[in-house]
Amino acid sequence: MRKVLVAANWKMYMTRPQAVELVRQLKEELLASPHEAQVVLAPPFTALETVGREIQGTGWGLAAQNGFWEREGAFTGEVSFPMLVELGCSMVILGHSERRQIFGETDEWIRRKVLAALQCGLTPMICVGEILEQRDQGRTLEVVRGQLTQALGGLELEHGREFLIAYEPVWAIGTGRTATPAQAQEVHAMIRGWLGENFSRAMADSTRILYGGSVKPDNIADLIDCPDIDGALVGGASLKAETFASIVRLGRG
Ligand code: PGA
What we know:
It is a single chain. This protein is α/β, with parallel strands linked by helices. About 40% of the residues lie in helices and about 15% in strands. The chain contains eleven helices and eight strands. The chain has helices spanning about 15-30, 50-55, 80-85, 95-100, 105-120, 130-135, 140-150, 180-200, 200-205, 215-225, 240-250; strands spanning about 5-10, 40, 60-65, 90-95, 125-130, 165, 210, 230-235. Helix 5 packs across helix 7 and helix 10 (about 215-225) packs parallel to helix 11. The N and C termini lie close together (about 10 Å). Bound molecules: 2-phosphoglycolic acid (PGA). 2-phosphoglycolic acid binds next to strand 8.
């Protein structure tokens, strides 16, 4: 069975003192009572080491929000995957729509990053999703299938090498407008089918597909009830301990 995973994408928020405070509050909220979901925190690069230290012993995972495919070299401003591994990261978010839209990341870049992250033993959380215009044109499934093919198509993945997919409709990110469970489930089911066709049934069954886009305590339960939604990637609502903790508690498979 696929264990529910709830990841916090802090984006470009949280200085180190703020991060320490948020993690302390989260520990108070979550460690006293058992919860089913696996928790992963993705702070900005500058707070990774601090957060890694604060979450020791909690069983929570540490993720970066990006990385570059070269191991080292003259790439001013970039951070490599081996550097992230050395900091204690086990996962990395790749291809987030903000990276694609604001920083011009192409599908080709995302593919190179996915490969390099896997080679370093990091679990990539690969983000896909359509913009509103594409949804209105009825092209959602085609667009997402195209992004999957570009990022993963034809890769020879070692058996058991884990990655996650996050379906994040761009029109739902930070807008307060969530996809309905039926809209999300339709895309998640297509993604799982695609994994089965392109890799194996076993990989399709074991790969976790997260939903992201205005996830809140009052919509997580209906989303997680869908058969192909295995967790959430949470942006805005992950910046407050109480709301993120509620989402984690409600994230039950
Ligand atoms: P949001 O962001 O929850 O604020 O919509 C989600 C994301 O960007 O991963």
